[in-house]
Amino acid sequence: MRHLTRLALAAAFSAVAFTSSAHDYNVGALKIDHPWARATPGAITTGAAYLTVTAQGQEPDRLIAVETPRAAKAELHTMILDGDIMKMRQVSAIEINPGEPTVLKPGGLHIMLVGLKAPLREKDRFPMTLTFEKAGKIEVQIAVESAGARDAGHDTHTMHGL
Ligand SMILES: [Cu+2]
Question: Which of 6, 56, 105, 149 is the most buried (most CB within 10 A)?
Fold first, then answer.
């Protein structure tokens, strides 16, 4: 009986994971929401991935490394305003502070995928390992969305005020 219940639960969970495009993960005191990447056009070999990290406790943390079998390397990038032009710059870590979710999104902080082994196609999923200074490592599945996809509710113009 107990065995059957477990099987039924497992089936229910995998059905949810399969049909839902919103997905989240927990590692230590951190919650990671909706890791996604934009589809890449043609034979372009760089891409970008995004996610939201929330510290659920009182401790800050830092995202310090990312790797994926899908690309030769993954870098942490921010956007800075240089005169009138937004430019990408590599950073050694992304700070996660309690009380405010850290949002990686188009036009802002992002994970740069360099040397993609194959183009990212809409509806693809691929694994990515995130390393946090305190919470440690977690593997998440990146969901590839259309090339024009934007995180709803976030406006890149707000970047100019930072
Ligand atoms: Cu970049």
Answer: 105
